[in-house]
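Narrative of accomplishments. A recurring question from our advisory board has been how the design workflow behaves on a single, concrete structure rather than in aggregate. To address it, we present the structure tokens for one chain from the evaluation set, followed by the sequence designed for it. No filtering or post-editing was applied between the two.
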């Protein structure tokens, strides 16, 4: 079910929710991110899982995320390294996700 539909100068911003997953899409038939609502810290796409591989070798104290997207990396990092200081820099999509309560603000 489509729960948000808007656009900015870069194109459409759509959020879908089927009760199990929430999906952020920037183009028809495309998934930018997917969050399983029951376990938002478990990454659903291989590309985001690969982005977490450095945690095998270090435990960072601070991370800056450029491009928040659906907040999947932020949720996973916050769960995996609870003491981490996260800074996210993004476009207006962040305001939509905060409204939908997909992004922690603490």
């Amino acid at each position: 079910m489509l729960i948000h539909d808007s656009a900015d100068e870069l194109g459409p911003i759509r959020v879908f929710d089927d009760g199990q997953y929430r999906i952020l899409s920037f183009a028809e038939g495309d998934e930018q991110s997917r969050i399983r609502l029951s376990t938002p810290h478990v990454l659903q796409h291989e590309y985001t899982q690969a982005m977490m591989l450095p945690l095998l070798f270090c435990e960072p104290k601070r991370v800056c995320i450029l491009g928040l997207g659906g907040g999947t990396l932020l949720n996973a990092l916050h769960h995996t390294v609870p003491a981490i200081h996260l800074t996210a820099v993004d476009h207006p999509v962040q305001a939509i996700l905060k409204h939908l309560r997909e992004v922690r603000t603490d």
